[in-house]
Amino acid sequence: MLSKVAERVYWTARYLERVESTARMISIYDQLLFDLPRSVKLSWYNLIRINNQEEAFNAIYTVLDERNVVKFMLSEASNSFSVASSLKAIRENVRTTRDVVPKDTWEMTNELSIFVQENLLQGVNRSKRHEFLETIIKGCQQILGLVYGSMPHDDAWHLLRIGRNIERADMTTRNLEAGISAILDMEDELAVINSHQIIWGKVLRSLNADHAYRRTKRVAVKDFPVAEYLLEDDEFPRSIRYNLNAIANSARELPHSADLEVALNRITKSLPVKQNGQLFLDASFKEHLNQIQIELAELHGLIYQAWFPKI
Fold first, then answer.
1. Which residues pair with 95 in a beta bridge?
2. Which of 34, 195, 41 is nearest to 130 (CA)?
3. What is the average pLDDT across 240-268?
């Protein structure tokens, strides 16, 4: 397989996971608006900070309100991380790798892209946002289900799996950061209204993890157990440790992966952040999440060195 084809398969998976995760992240804040008391002011601009897009956002918008943030994340053409931009990239990558991915991937990608383009206002306006985001999430899951159920587990599949899991690990850190940012942002109000459980419950639901969490941890939704579960659980498909293990398993099936495995072991060992046996959730926890994101970016660089070298 040509390295250019391999690169496009890798990015197809990354962008597809990014679209779904972005929809889920917006959903956290959208649902919190309904569940938290009206006296609590939720900063939508946190989503821009979490995704390191302050400079790009501020170059376009001066008002840091809900509508502009959601529009930037869903439809802004100049934002390469927006849902619309990511879907455009997916479509181009699938178009040029149709001999590698299942045949129906092209048709399903087009259907999802057309739906988003025709219904973007539903996502920007709050009244029908839930249905719009749910359709995007289900569309991404259908495409991934097709790929996982129909694609031979060859080199292309392993690269697709690596792309999906590195993006998923990164987005899980950002969902965790969204939760801790909301709590730190509203610390005074939350001390009174005791809404930590609401926020962490939404973080779990945004990752479709609420049922799995209760089944595994068998405790109420609390800050420390939720963060620990999403960081360190070996079996939940959206936990950071699970995704790192999945990347390592696929990397072993490909050549030139020694440096990648060393980096994966280093990141995995750095996951726990505990004080007196518990995770310590404050501004330092945000810094730890940021460090994981940096290490995942370095991992991406090693992937390029190993399999997509620029000649």
1. none
2. 34
3. 94
Q: Which residues pair with 274 in a beta bridge?
A: 279
Tokens coding 58: 């501020």
What is this structure's pTM? 0.91
C-alpha 294/C-alpha 286 separation (Å) is 12
Q: How far apart are CA 78 and CA 84, in angstroms?
A: 10
CA distance 135 to 24: 11
pLDDT at 279 over 60: no
Question: Burial, 152: exposed, middle or buried (Cβ in 10 Å; 0-12, 13-18, 19+)?
Answer: exposed
Secondary structure (H, E, C), the chain? CCHHHHHHHHHHHHHHHHHHHHHHHHHHHHHHHHHCCCCCCCCCHHHHHHCCCHHHHHCCCCCCCHHHHHHHHHCCCCCCCCHHHHHHHHHHHHHCCCCCCCCHHHHHHHHHHHHHHHCHHHHHCHHHHHHHHHHHHHHHHHHHHHHHHHCCCCHHHHHHHHHHHHHHHHHHHHHHHHHHHHHHHCHHHHHHHCCHHHHHHHHHHHCCCHHHHHHHHCCCCCHHHHHHHHHHCCCCCCCHHHHHHHHHHHHCCCCCCHHHHHHHHHHHHCCCCEECCEECCCHHHHHHHHHHHHHHHHHHHHHHHHHCCCC
Total number of residues shown for the chain: 311
The residue to which tokens 């590195």 are assigned = 166
Instruction: Give residue 304's Cα distance to chain centre.
Output: 20
Residue 80 has a pLDDT of: 84
Asked if 166 and 300 count as a contact pair (C-beta separation under 8 A), the reply is: yes
Least confident of 67-81, 211-225, 262-276: 262-276
- The full set of domain ranges for the chain reads 3-307
- Is the pLDDT reported for residue 214 higher than 70? yes
Among candidate residues 20, 49, 83, the one with its CA nearest the CA of residue 290:
49
As a whole number of Å, the end-to-end CA separation of the chain is 16
